[in-house]
Amino acid sequence: MRVLITGAAGGVGSSIISQLRDTGLEVRATCRRPDPQRWPWLQTFPSDLNQPHTMRQALEGVETVFLYSFAQRDSLPRLVEEMKAAGVEKVIVLSTIDTTRHEPFVEYNKQRHLEVENAIAHSGFNAVCLRPGAFARNAIRFWANQIREHRTVGLPFPESQQAPIADEDIAAVAVRAITTSQLDGEKIVLTGPSSLTMRDQVGLISQAIAEPIGITELSEIEARALYGQVLPPEYLDLLMGQWAFETTEKAVVAPAVHDITGHRPISYLDWAIDHRDAFL
Ligand SMILES: NC(=O)c1ccc[n+]([C@@H]2O[C@H](COP(=O)([O-])OP(=O)(O)OC[C@H]3O[C@@H](n4cnc5c(N)ncnc54)[C@H](OP(=O)(O)O)[C@@H]3O)[C@@H](O)[C@H]2O)c1
Q1: Which residue range(s) make up the domain with 104?
Q2: For ligand 1, atom 45, which residue shows the shortest CA distance?
Q3: Which secondary structure element, helix H or strand E, spans residue 125, and what is its range?
């Protein structure tokens, strides 16, 4: 069976590629700027989901696609057409837990991902929607520079809670969806193993690098200036609303990673130890 992994340079896509290596499947990968040296054992194609014609060659003869939800509203129908024309049968969509939430601040992200989920499901593909909560990897994007440079993290809401999930666990579920029919048609919420405040998360990173890390409480204006350096404005609004809200309750902890893969999701400490070099 020929499988196409989009977003190959991203954390989830690259982990799926590694986990598929010894399955005997014929794996192809797309990203906007592929590095052919990275995976000499598979075919990589320079393709952009927002320019669906650039996907055509990669899609030839592909039965199953792992799809990042980056296709925008006006390119989605053409992306669907390209996959249909190529004879794709199954599509695993990387979506978000926000599709299950009702607070007004998630609306932008929720609708963006629901459009992709619905376009796939309503076009007759066998659709599997993976709906992860916060990625553990966000700590690298949000905090690694601050930790490397000052051994401190600025937080507007230190008691905000998430259940961060490792890319490898999302990828393990995706691999199950690719290689079996067990998850066909399902929409699956995926989280890490426990609800942790941001203060806890920083503490676990500190433990992983064996160095103290301070926390500076920021006003929302200060936080917007700091996090605006690594986030587009639409996500900045979403995250400020979400982080404030998440101080009021524990994060959802879903059993799906364990139920589907048979292993406990990777703990935040183990994740931080595996990625300690990013913070040093
Ligand atoms: N971060 C979270 O906490 C979180 C939680 C739940 C769901 N998600 C969802 O998971 C997905 C990935 O998030 P992420 O934080 O991992 O993002 P990311 O690291 O910034 O992006 C991952 C991959 O997506 C591709 N990509 C990004 N922008 C693109 C565009 N405009 N057109 C085509 N491809 C694009 C990139 O592919 P190239 O290699 O081609 O550049 C990249 O390899 C998003 O849909 C996000 O909403 C994220």
Answers
A1: 2-134+166-190
A2: 69
A3: none
